[in-house]
Amino acid sequence: MSSFIASINEKMAEAERDLASASDSASLEEIRIKYLGRNGFFSRAADDLKLVPKEEKPDAGRSFNTARKKFQELFDSALESLKGGSKSPSSGERPDLTLPGRKRKFGAKHPISRVIEDCAAIFRRLGFIVADGPEIETVFHNFDALNTPLHHPSRDPQDTFYLPDGRLLRTQTSPVQIRVMQKQSPPVRIVAPGRCFRRDTPDATHSLNFHQIEGLYVDAGVSMADLKSTLLFFARELVGPDADVRLRPHFFPFTEPSVEYDFSCIMCRGKGCRICKNSGWLEISGAGMVNPAVLANVGYDPEEYSGFAFGMGIERIAMIRYAINDIRILYENDLRFLEQF
Ligand code: PHE
pTM score, two decimals? Predict the structure, then answer.
């Protein structure tokens, strides 16, 4: 094949690509100029044709004419389909308007978010408002102001993530208690949901990051009975009217007296099963009466005010509620899991 014919064929392939990608009349006009314009491809090719050796001329001339004609046809049909509004349906082929629409998949809230929102909604009905605090905390807010002694094991770098500047990733939502009380005087009635971090080894029930919801109520004459009735109301709203709550003595530096509290097992209703390890109770988290030392740390008069505080593990509640047996699945973004919610 002569080099003239080869260059024509090459150019035609390019022209087809150009026309296929033209999406508006402006780009089509550019293509017209590129190929049919005075200095366009075909006019230059006509000049070249004159230089083709005599014996090759008939073939060369024929392919020149064929290419030109073909280009014109392709160009016209590109123009036509652009005028028709859309490039795709060729004439006679109409979209079938009776076909069902394409279904769009809706996302859903993550189970952790759902539990947080449901818990906050229950407490809101008791007059609690939602407060917030930073995930990067000072040692003061996370430990000192919460009356945590210097030798307390939770301060150990083996348990807490410290940043080079001396701050830390909060190990609990309790520092929000301090931040709120520093800003306002009693009465205080807040819940503070959020992410916490501990240097745990991940396993089925431990994760480096997890969520808590903190509660704090400080006013004149707040008692342990208020704490228990609040937790009981919460448990019944969350899992049903026959839920029960039990308090067990415990120790936290920022509450005195302190308790751990359990909800009656929602699986067996207290009879004993695999989920509650046959005890009939599910451990939720810690609570207690705000330590007077903490009140004094934020400038409240402990003689005038008292309060209770509690913390709950969100993952713990989610795992009980949705019968999840491994905490890690909550963070893996596996759609086969998440699509069930
Ligand atoms: N902050 C405690 C924890 O993470 C829970 C707690 C909160 C206990 C409030 C008492 C009062 O274990």
Answer: 0.70
